[in-house]
Amino acid sequence: xxxxxxxxxxxxxxxxxxxxxxxxxxxxxxxxxxxxxxxxxxxxxxxxxxxxxxxxxxxxxxxxxxxxxxxxxxxxxxxxxxxxxxxxxxxxxxxxxxxxxxxxxxxxxxxxxxxxxxxxxxxxxxxxxxxxxxxxxxxxxxxxxxxxxxxxxxxxxxxxxxxxxxxxxxxxxxxxxxxxxxxxxxxxxxxxxxxxxxxxxxxxxxxxxxxxxxxxxxxxxxxxxxxxxxxxxxxxxxxxxxxxxxxxxxxxxxxxxxxxxxxxxxxxxxxxxxxxxxxxxxxxxxxxxxxxxxxxxxxxxxxxxxxxxxxxxxxxxxxxxxxxxxxxxxxxxxxxxxxxxxxxxxxxxxxxxxxxxxxxxxxxxxxxxxxxxxxxxxxxxxxxxxxxxxxxxxxxxxxxxxxxxxxxxxxxxxxxxxxxxxxxxxxxxxxxxxxxxxxxxxxxxxxxxxxxxxxxxxxxxxxxxxxxxxxxxxxxxxxxxxxxxxxxxxxxxxxxxxxxxxxxxxxxxxxxxxxxxxxxxxxxxxxxxxxxxxxxxxxxxxxxxxxxxxxxxxxxxxxxxxxxxxxxxxxxxxxxxxxxxxxxxxxxxxxxxxxxxxxxxxxxxxxxxxxxxxxxxxxxxxxxxxxxxxxxxxxxxxxxxxxxxxxxxxxxxxxxxxxxxxxxxxxxxxxxxxxxxxxxxxxxxxxxxxxxxxxxxxxxxxxxxxxxxxxxxxxxxxxxxxxxxxxxxxxxxxxxxxxxxxxxxxxxxxxxxxxxxxxxxxxxxxxxxxxxxxxxxxxxxxxxxxxxxxxxxxxxxxxxxxxxxxxxxxxxxxxxxxxxxxxxxxxxxxxxxxxxxxxxxxxxxxxxxxxxxxxxxxxxxxxxxxxxxxxxxxxxxxxxxxxxxxxxxxxxxxxxxxxxxxxxxxxxxxxxxxxxxxxxxxxxxxxxxxxxxxxxxxxxxxxxxxxxxxxxxxxxxxxxxxxx
Length: 964
Known about the structure:
Elements: H1 11-14, E1 40-42, E2 55-58, E3 63-66, E4 76-79, E5 84-86, H2 88-96, H3 101-107, E6 110-112, H4 115-122, E7 132-138, E8 144-152, E9 156-157, E10 163-164, H5 182-185, E11 191-196, H6 198-206, E12 211-214, H7 229-235, E13 240-243, H8 253-268, E14 272-275, H9 289-297, H10 302-309, E15 325-326, H11 328-342, E16 349-351, H12 359-367, E17 373-377, H13 380-392, E18 397-399, H14 411-419, H15 424-427, H16 435-441, H17 443-452, E19 455-459, H18 460-465, H19 467-471, E20 476-480, H20 484-487, E21 488-494, H21 495-499, H22 501-514, H23 518-540, E22 545-547, H24 559-571, H25 583-593, E23 597-602, E24 612-618, E25 626-630, H26 636-643, E26 649-650, E27 656-657, E28 662-666, H27 676-688, E29 696-700, H28 705-714, E30 720-725, E31 742-746, H29 753-762, H30 766-769, E32 775-783, E33 789-797, H31 800-818, E34 831-835, H32 855-870, H33 889-892, H34 898-906, H35 922-929, H36 933-945, E35 949-951, E36 958-960
Parallel strand pairs: 11-12, 11-13, 13-14, 15-27, 16-25, 16-26, 17-19, 17-20, 18-19, 20-25, 28-34, 29-30, 29-31, 31-34
Antiparallel strand pairs: 1-2, 2-5, 3-4, 6-7, 7-8, 9-10, 21-24, 22-23, 23-24, 32-33, 35-36
């Protein structure tokens, strides 16, 4: 036992399976509970209230309680030969939970049909209970504990209208329920599932999953509010513990809170804890572990998959500083050592360090030891930034160029070929009239230069299309951020775009045959037949299904040039004026007959939707170079699934790094549908609270960019420093935001259900893509900035597969944008505010601020601030805060309240002075704004309710300030 001596405890309590020695003055030992009783039906039996009702009888040794010495911690029971029985309703209840007759007899569950017997077991007589099912408890080694719980035949209702399914003995502490076969299932270093409800534990144990149960979600503590001794017994036997409550845990606030508390206490006791999330029933209803097993969750392998994907629990409400946190210098030194020590091994290596902790620096050290490397990044902007960074560090690096009007003189034709997914260097460049000049100082020259440099940089799209040539003679290939897209790209193409290709391919086949080009005609005919198969299959499909096409061997390497000629000739025909080809659809057909992509049909679910083909391209891992995958926002198992059969080794340093700058979450939902006027009001509110911050950066939705541009042009020309939108490329993988002093993430990059379904298809989860994600209310628990546990109501998918895909698409993108602040570094952005309802693992500011400020209120605030500064007046706060403390002190000094630091950060240029006696008069403000005093007074009242201004007395005027 944790913190207790076990020398005086009986072996039955500490889990020893050996015979129990004599205790005190009692010489009675425990009998075995294995009886193998048989069920026999008795048609007529007189037993209390069960007259003339069939009952099921089985022989089972009953227990007669024998009192032992006062020092004993349990009661010993002596066997007699009194038979037990089960009522039909009780037996049906047990069978509905998947329990076999053998498990029922081994567990000792039986029925009682006498109020006197019920009173004897419980120590009190519940009103209206004439019969009940008795569930006897035992120790971990199978010996009886002398404690039983009852399930009344009819559910009781308390005074509040809540149903009562189970009854417990009076004045008895909680106990852990052990199934009879638990010890036979446990192995050293194995696992145990902790659930709620005895029948669930029996069902899971019967099917080979060692499981124990607590009698209620909050019944894991004893009468002294400490963790149950039996749970500590599991902890100190080095067993991995899985907590598995019902499927509604994510939406049931009380159950979720109990789950978090139990996981925290087990973690503090030294256990390795994981949380299992079983999905709801097919009809969307709640189901427990036994229901999930009975409904096929075990036979389909879903239970094993849920256990495999369960993530280790991290202590909420703060992690004790017991060496878990590390210094940045130590972390970077370990990254350097790992790069040098592991780079010669064949398997791909994964580094999940947060952004800004030195992944690029460690790669730079390895570049110095390598003759030739390639770095793959998501966008061209990332490539340019990395090229500048490496060049400033003394490393010769060159990024592959972009196709622009500056680099290519034949730009219009080259862009048209690229839109058709055809290679420009093979189609346009060989016959381009500017080829010679381009090879000297143009697009071809830059490509050749990038290929010759010892250290090259390219985008993920270029790497996917030219994997073999780019990987040639490379010692190491580094993949930075969003590494899954480098090996597994997915696109959605409408079926109508494939239909548009039919006439083109039919024309190409006939024209080639007329010219006597037999092989070309066969090639175009294969493309035409493939499109026909896709279209016909899509019209007859009602569910998400994969499409299989026939393979075709290409006649020659010049098929791309031949296809380009046919397309150009077809476009010049008078009847085809304005003809546009979908390049992705054309590339899909070409790759489909080469078996280079996977096709899945997604039918239309509503009238306004169109059927689509989800195309997934998988890029093979190059065999020669060593592979390093660096992604701080993606989980290892997601990266592993995109790679395929190769095993990815996790080389992320152990531990955690403290944030050096303040990052705070504002639980507010900002969606694409949010009106631009609401967004402008929120931005005015935030900037009004930050008058001392002159370089503010914003990441918003694309539809809100016009509102931000208007604010910058008319109201905050100097304060709004830079802004962009989600998925622009500038919101991820760039250090250019570090010149800001505030970063605001305004909203969450939500995507429609079709995008989540597309991600599921990309992951190969076709069955999950056919299900409904069950979008609805969700709850999660976070930590406030003053270290309180807070509950946040959010929205999300209840289906676990949809929820995981949602995290891959939405939450990872949000985290990447948030980490542009480089808050782990001393030179990071001082303050980052994230307006989102997604759990991000950062402190939550749950006070009712940020209610929005109108244009007139914003002008009033500006005038009030100017007049207060002219008069030498200072701001005021109802709560005394420590002025002059940097935002990092809340991290280096855990005793300092983060709320105080946050208040100082928002107090702006105004010092905190509780002795202020006067403020700016309403008449002065009205004169400056040229409006009536009544209008100013009403606006000031609204601003005071938003905690943006403060009134000094009744007639002493107003001051700008923050109420904490």
